[in-house]
Every structure is written in C-alpha cells, then in structure tokens.
C-alpha cells in the first residue's frame, strides 16, 4: 500500500516522519471484491465483519483471510450497517431489504431476525449483549427503534425517536446511544430512558440546509465514555456529556456541551480518535453546497487521511499534524458516501467499494524503516540499540550493515570504519569482507586502528594486507602499527623481509630502520635491534636493555650510549646501575677522549657515592673547572680525597678566587686567603665572614691592619665586628684625620647596640631574681608541711625503730632521710649523703607522746 505524505511545510525542506503506516487487505478479500463490493465494516480485535452490496457478510481476519466456518448470507441486497457486541460473540446487520439480523458466531440459541416493512439503515447492539438478559438492539429506519427481549423470549419494540428523516448512523457506548438523522445528532441515556441533547447539523437553520445527507452522511465516533466526535460535511465537532445537579427528578441530570467546532477544507468521510488527536478521512471537493446527485462527470481526487488536533487557543480552528493521500483502487469514480472509516484501538480501516486499507500507528520498526529510507542511518542505528528486543523486523546487525554500505557508497570511509567494531562485533566473515572492501577502494588506513586485536582476531592475511599498504604509502603509519599491534597478528619473518627490501633502496631511512628494530625485537634478535637503536640514538635502546637484561652489551656500547643528547642522563644512570657489568675504570678509560661525557659520568658517580671513584677526584677538579665551575666549590667542600696543592694550582691557573680562598683556608694558610679576599673584594663583608668561620683573633688583627688604609672597609668593620671584636680596638687604630664616609652612623649604631645589650642584661637579671625569690618561698612552704611516719620505719643511721624514746627525729629536706637527733652531730655520716650545706627538719616526741617540730640550719 503506498501513500503520499505531505505536511504544513510545503517546501519539502524539512522531512517529517509519517504518523501512520498503511497496508491493503488482501488474500481472500481480493477474491470477494472481484465479484462483489464492500458496503460496510465492523471491527473486533479478533476479526473483521465485512458487509457487501450483494447482501453477504464475511468474517475475515485482519489480513483479509476468510474464516470458512463464519460465512453468512443474511440479506438479499446491500448490507447498510454491521454492529458487534463487546465480546465479539454476536454480529448484527441490517439491509435495504428490511431485515435486521442478529447472528451468534458460536451457537444459534440467540440468533434472531427482525422483519421490517421499510429499509433499515443502521443498527447497534447493547455493549454487553452476550451477558445481558434483555438483549437490547437499536436499529434505524425513518425512526429509531429499540428492541428488547421480554418474558418467554418475546421481543418488545419501542420507538425512541422519529419524524426527522432517516437514521443513517448509530453508535452505542456504555449507557449512551448516539445517532444521526437528516437534521442532526442526538444522544439518548438508556439508564434514565430519555434523550439528553440535540446537536444541529450546522449553525444555520436546519430547514435551509443545502448539503444532501445521502451524499454527505454524518459520521460519529466515541472518543471515550463521555466524549463524542462528529464529522458531517466539512463540519467537525467535539462534544462532551456533562453531569448537573438538580432537585427536580423529572429534569435530566446530564447535558452536552460542544468543546470544539470548526470548518474543514474537506468533506468528512469518517472520523476516529487517535489519543488527543483526531483522524479524519477527507474527501476533496471544491463546493459542497452546490453538489448534486448527477454531478459525477469529473473524476474525484484521491482521499486523504488527515490527523488534526483542535487549537486550544481558538475553539473554531484546528492544527493539521499530517495528511496522507491514499491510493484507493478506483478512487476516481467514488463520491463521499462511498467511503467509510472504522477503528478499533490502534487499527483504522478505510473502506471503499473495491478496496479496504488498514492504517496503523507506526511502531518502532516502522520508524527505523522510515529513517533508513531518508538516509538517516546513524539515528536509525542508535534507535535500534535503544529499542532492543522490542523490534521485530530490524536487528542491530542488519541496520548497521545497511549503514556501512551507505557510508562506503558515499565515500565517508572514516565514519564507516568508526562503526565497524560495534556493528560487526565478533563476526569474522563480515570483518574479512569489510577489510577487503576497504582494500579495494584504497582506504585500509581508515580501518587499521579499529581492527580487532584482543581475544578475537582476524586471519593473519588481513593484518599483513594493512601493513603492506602502509609500508607502500606511509612509513610512519607502518611504524605506529608495529608499536600498537601485538606481533602475533602477523608473520614477523614476512614483514621483516618486506622492510629489508625497502631498505635496499633507502638504506638510511630512519623510520624504516626503527621499524626493522621493532621487528627484530619481536623476533628476539635483540642484538640487532640494539645496534639499530644506538645507531639512530633512539631512546628505545634503554627500554630494550632494561626489559631484556642486555647489560653485558653495555661494555661494548659505552660511548654510543653517552652520545645520546636528550637521554644522556639516562645513559649515565644505566651505567651506574650496572657497575658490576661496566666498572668505573672501564667507563673512564672509554671516555678518556670525551672529556665532557667523562665529566657528567664522574659527577653522577660522586653524587651517588662520594667515596666511589675517589682516585679520580683530582681529575674531577680539572673537569669541573673546565665544564661546570658552579659545582667546583661544592665539590671541593664535599670531597676528602682531593690533592689540595694540585687543586690550588688549577684554580690559580684559572684565577678562581673563591676556590683559592677555600683551599688556602683548608690548607691552614688563612692569612694568604684573607689577603686574596681583601685584594679582590671591595666589600668587607666577605672578609668578615671568613674571619668568623676561622674564629682566630690574630686573623681579626690582620683584617683590621689591612683595612686601615681603606675607609670603606673601616666602616664595614665597625658595623659588623661588634659581637666578635671590641670596637675600641679598631677605633684606636684609625689614623687621625682619615675621612671615613658614614663613620658617624656606624658609631651611633655601635652605641645603640651597646645600650640595647646593657638594657637587655639588666632586664634578664631582674626577671631571674624575682623568679629565684618566688621559687625559694614555694620550697620553704613545702618543707614546712608535716609528714606521716610509719611505725615500722627504721632510722636511716642506726637501724633502730624510728619511733622510740631515744629522742627527736631529724629529716633531710632534700633526700627525705630520717634519723635520730643524736646522729645529727655526726657530720661524717651525714656528709656521706650530702656534699653541700644541709637544712634539717626536726620532729620531736616527748615522753607523753606529744609531737614537737623545729626547723634549723646547721
């Protein structure tokens, strides 16, 4: 089934996804319509009941297959209406032959036929007809009649309405019956047994209507239990049943309001709800008001299925969401009354005399199909992954392969390569096919980074094909692949021979040489790989040595390793870490002609252990002096193995004053060192610091004597030697009439420092004196406290019980020794415990046991 989709955007720049999908019913229906014509349809979730102009009624499945056991011929002429109950057990039909038939699909107990004397145009069954005892039926002729089964299976007919023309449409939902006659639509409440509303055809007087109802019949559809949709001509209305409270039991408790009412630019051939939207079958005609029964000369346009929604801001207008032109067989010869529309949930059937089209809400599969049709493959692939198992027609692999093919055809090879891993997964055959396809278009470099390298791998030929392509066109890319790919992905010998063949033409190509070294490494030929890396000065040499323990090869490659520029420190560390393989003497001998390399090696050796290579410290002095003077003085201070005389000669040759001063001071020739300082330095602070370090009063005298002819030196000395030398000595030696800039300030500073020092001394003395007095008083208070003596305590002098009639008890305040008073005169015994002046605390007992205390200081 094909359809043409259009939207409000007539320019076509923006593609909008269709809302519905279409399928023409086929199978047995095609055979039926070859000899007959469809007149009406009723839908159930399990089957479709089709009425024809020959009075036949066919029960079909939703694909159009005839259910052979459910075929009926209840009428002799056109079936005008078919109705089903909720369970699908009963089918009611009516015809222009005046018969109303109710047929049970599963038994014949409740089947019945009502014979009328006029054509029946519409019929409806009570929704719960199968379970109801009353078995209510409503049918319409020129009046609306309800037929109810009474006692003894008799049927009673009641006229609900008449006098307003033919009742062409009836729709029964729950307790409400809606029907349309020539004047309008009415709603009847079966519970209250009264009509609750009348909705006119148009806003003009009903007797002045010019649109003929037989050519443009009304179409009714319940949206829910209380909302009804009405399409009549180009008028569309949305009405709702409301409740109202009243104390008068005779007045109806329900009423109907029109929610929306708008004019359409088409004649409505059928109407149905679609969620909050409305589906209308549109018949296009320029002037409905002037239509006559004989005006059938011009061919009709294709009918359209439109989805519209009311405008919430304007109740008299609507918004068109989409429109689809339907390819109905023979549409050129059909008028508005030849079409009808029925719906059941998500299925919508468009009925014409020779064709039945099924429209459905598009599902996830349909959306994927539409995206593929408009070449939105990436979005389709993402939605397939999102929908997952909800899809029935499409799989991730199928959509992905379609996307891949589309990208390859468009020449977007980078995007195609990017989606290969997620689309192809672990399918080896598909991977091989895509690799060969990339090879055919010369784009293997695009897919090379994305080829599988883990547990799942392709045949070696695929990887070798990619490497060969890079070797021809991109040597850097070839080398990069060798770094990234495991060597198990390709034949090492084959690729080595291919690289050697290219090196025959370009023997000094550094990229190919590095690639060859990687291949040698993968083939465990480490000696050849190391030789190439050293030749190229490639840092990979260090990793190769450490990773494969090639330390024995260091002896033969000391100089090549030290010739690395940026990685020279790493080379030095490697040699020092493996001194058991490359002794220091061997390295020094190899680097004897390369003084700069030797200096860096010996410097690193000294930093690691100052005692290693001590025999080369004299050589290092010369190397530091030549290549790195800034580190010479720290080296002289740190090393204990330097020949001082030789080092001093080297420094004198190069006139390195600081180093000479240090060496002279270390050799004990401080006077000469001081003379160098005063000779070359204009600032006395350096000489002062040197004298402070030497801490020699004679050196201070020499500094003072050497400074007497230098006013700046004298001022500097006055400002700096106050804590080491008495300034009076310097002041007395200053020659008379010598002009010394800043002398007054220097003297003022000396006096201020002396005054501050004196004040600080007196304050400290005062604080200490007050602290001594306070602590003495505290100690005296502690000494005056009585103490408890245990009865079992013995005298510390004679060993007799301390508490006896022998006499008073003495106690040393400092060491807590207790003894009888008689022993206090024995100074020799006491001095065995103290070598300083003691104070004693005496506790005496009288014969009556009274305690007496006295304190004395012998």
Q: Overall 3D geometry?
A: elongated
Largest sheet: 5 strands, antiparallel
Helix/strand structural class: alpha+beta
Q: Evaluate the radius of gyration.
A: 59 Å
Counting DSSP H or I runs of 4 or more residues, the number of helices is: 28
Enumerate the spans where pLDDT stays under 50 for 5 or more consecutive residues: 5-12, 203-208, 824-858
Helix-residue proportion: 25-40%
Q: Termini distance?
A: 135 Å
Mean pLDDT level: 82
Question: Would you mind describing this structure in some detail?
Answer:
The protein is built from 28 helices and 33 strands. The chain has 858 residues and is of the alpha+beta class. The strands form eight sheets. The chain has a five-stranded antiparallel β-sheet, with no helix packed on it. β19 (219-222) and β20 (227-232) form a beta hairpin. The termini are far apart. 31% of the residues are buried. Keywords: Protein transport, Transport, WD repeat.
Which features does this protein show?
alpha+beta, single chain, WD40_rpt, Vps41/Vps8, Vps41 beta-propeller domain-containing protein, 4-stranded antiparallel beta sheet, 5-stranded antiparallel beta sheet, disordered C terminus, 858 residues, 28 helices, 33 strands, protein transport
What topology does this entry show?
Layout: E1 3-6, E2 20-24, H1 28-35, E3 38-43, E4 48-52, E5 57-60, E6 66-72, E7 79-84, E8 90-95, E9 99-104, E10 112-115, E11 122-125, E12 137-140, E13 143-149, E14 155-162, E15 169-173, E16 176-180, E17 184-189, E18 194-200, E19 219-222, E20 227-232, E21 235-243, E22 254-263, E23 267-274, E24 277-283, E25 304-310, E26 318-326, E27 340-344, E28 347-352, E29 355-361, H2 364-373, H3 377-387, H4 396-410, H5 413-424, H6 428-440, H7 444-447, H8 460-473, H9 475-484, H10 492-503, H11 510-522, H12 526-536, H13 540-548, H14 558-562, H15 568-577, H16 584-590, H17 595-608, H18 617-627, H19 632-638, H20 644-654, H21 657-667, H22 670-680, H23 685-694, H24 697-707, H25 711-720, H26 727-733, H27 743-783, E30 809-812, E31 818-820, H28 827-831, E32 840-845, E33 851-856
Antiparallel strand pairs: 1-26, 2-29, 3-4, 4-5, 5-6, 7-8, 8-9, 9-10, 11-12, 12-13, 13-14, 15-16, 16-17, 17-18, 19-20, 20-21, 21-22, 23-24, 24-25, 25-26, 27-28, 28-29, 30-31, 30-32, 32-33
Helix pairs in contact: 2-3, 3-4, 4-5, 8-9, 9-11, 10-11, 11-12, 12-13, 15-17, 17-18, 18-20, 19-21, 20-21, 21-22, 22-23, 22-24, 25-27
């Amino acid at each position: 089934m094909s359809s043409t989709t259009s939207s409000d955007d007539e320019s076509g720049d923006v593609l909008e996804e269709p809302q519905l999908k279409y399928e023409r019913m086929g199978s047995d229906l095609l055979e039926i319509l070859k000899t007959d014509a469809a007149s009406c349809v009723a839908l159930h979730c399990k089957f479709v009941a089709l009425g024809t102009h020959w009075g036949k009624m066919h029960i079909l499945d939703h694909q159009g297959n005839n259910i052979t056991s459910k075929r009926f011929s209840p009428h002799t002429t056109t079936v005008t209406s078919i109705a089903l109950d909720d369970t699908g057990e009963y089918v009611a039909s009516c015809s222009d032959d005046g018969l109303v038939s109710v047929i049970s699909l599963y038994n014949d107990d409740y089947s019945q036929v009502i014979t009328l004397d006029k054509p029946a145009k519409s019929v409806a069954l009570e929704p719960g007809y199968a379970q109801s005892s009353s078995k209510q039926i409503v049918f319409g002729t020129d009046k609306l009649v309800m037929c109810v089964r009474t006692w003894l299976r008799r049927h009673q007919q009641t006229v609900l309405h008449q006098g307003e023309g033919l009742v062409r449409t009836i729709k029964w939902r729950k307790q409400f019956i809606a029907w349309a006659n020539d004047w309008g639509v009415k709603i009847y409440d079966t519970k209250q047994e009264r009509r609750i509303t009348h909705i006119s055809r148009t806003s003009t007087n009903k007797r002045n209507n010019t649109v003929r109802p037989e050519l443009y019949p009304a179409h009714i559809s319940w949206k829910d239990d209380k909302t009804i949709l009405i399409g009549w001509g180009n008028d569309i209305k949305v009405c709702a049943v409301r409740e109202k409270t009243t104390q008068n039991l005779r007045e109806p408790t329900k009423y109907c309001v029109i929610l929306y009412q708008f004019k359409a630019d088409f004649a409505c051939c059928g109407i149905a709800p679609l969620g909050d939207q409305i589906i209308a079958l549109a018949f296009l005609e320029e002037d409905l008001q002037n239509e006559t029964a004989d005006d059938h000369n011009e061919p009709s346009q294709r009918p359209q299925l439109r989805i519209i929604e009311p405008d919430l801001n304007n109740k008299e207008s609507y918004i068109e969401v989409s429109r689809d032109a339907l390819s109905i067989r023979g549409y050129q010869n059909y008028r508005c009354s030849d079409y009808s529309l029925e719906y059941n949930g998500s299925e919508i059937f468009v009925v014409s005399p020779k064709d039945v089209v099924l429209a459905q809400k598009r599902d996830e599969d349909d959306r994927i199909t539409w995206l593929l049709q408009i070449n939105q493959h990436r979005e389709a692939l993402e939605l397939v992954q999102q929908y997952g198992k909800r899809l029935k027609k499409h799989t991730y692999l199928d959509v992905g392969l379609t996307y891949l093919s589309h990208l390859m055809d468009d020449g977007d090879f980078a995007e195609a390569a990017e989606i290969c891993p997620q689309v192809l997964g672990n399918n080896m055959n598909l991977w091989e096919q895509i690799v060969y396809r990339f090879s055919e278009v010369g784009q293997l470099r695009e897919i090379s980074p994305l080829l599988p390298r883990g547990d799942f791998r392709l045949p070696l030929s695929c990887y070798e094909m990619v490497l060969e392509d890079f070797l021809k066109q991109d040597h850097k890319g070839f080398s990069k692949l060798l770094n990234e790919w495991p060597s198990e992905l390709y034949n090492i010998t084959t690729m080595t021979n291919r690289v050697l063949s290219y090196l025959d033409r370009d023997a000094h190509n550094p990229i190919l040489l590095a690639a060859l070294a990687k291949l040698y490494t993968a083939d465990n030929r480490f000696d050849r790989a190391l030789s190439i890396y050293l030749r190229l000065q490639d840092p990979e040499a260090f990793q190769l040595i450490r990773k494969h323990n090639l330390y024995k090869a260091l002896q033969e490659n000391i100089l090549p390793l030290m010739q690395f520029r940026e990685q020279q420190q790493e080379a030095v560390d490697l040699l020092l870490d493996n001194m058991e393989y490359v002794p220091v003497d061997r390295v020094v001998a190899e680097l004897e002609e390369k003084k700069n390399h030797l200096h860096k090696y010996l410097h690193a050796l000294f930093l690691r252990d100052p005692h290693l290579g001590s025999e080369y410290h004299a050589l290092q002095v010369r190397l530091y002096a030549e290549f790195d003077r800034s580190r010479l003085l720290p080296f002289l201070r740190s090393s204990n193995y330097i020949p001082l005389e030789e080092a001093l000669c080297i420094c004198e040759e190069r006139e390195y004053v600081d180093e000479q001063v240090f060496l002279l001071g270390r050799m004990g020739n401080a006077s000469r060192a001081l003379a160098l300082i005063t000779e070359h330095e204009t600032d006395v602070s350096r000489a002062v610091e040197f004298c402070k370090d030497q801490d020699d009063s004679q050196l201070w005298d020499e500094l003072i004597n050497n400074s007497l002819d230098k006013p700046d030196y004298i001022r500097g000395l006055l400002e700096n030697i106050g804590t080491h030398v008495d300034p009076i000595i310097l002041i007395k030696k200053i020659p008379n009439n010598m002009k010394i800039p800043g002398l007054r300030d220097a003297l003022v500073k000396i006096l201020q420092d002396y005054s501050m020092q004196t004040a600080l001394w007196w304050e400290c003395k005062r604080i200490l004196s007050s602290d001594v007095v306070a602590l003495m008083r505290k100690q005296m208070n502690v000494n005056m406290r009585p103490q408890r003596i245990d009865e079992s305590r013995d005298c510390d002098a004679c060993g007799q019980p301390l508490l006896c009639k022998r006499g008073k008890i003495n106690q040393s305040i400092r060491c807590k020794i207790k003894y009888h008073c008689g022993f206090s005169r024995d100074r020799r015994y006491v001095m065995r415990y103290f070598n300083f002046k003691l104070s004693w605390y005496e506790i005496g007992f009288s014969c009556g046991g009274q305690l007496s205390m006295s304190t004395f200081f012998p």
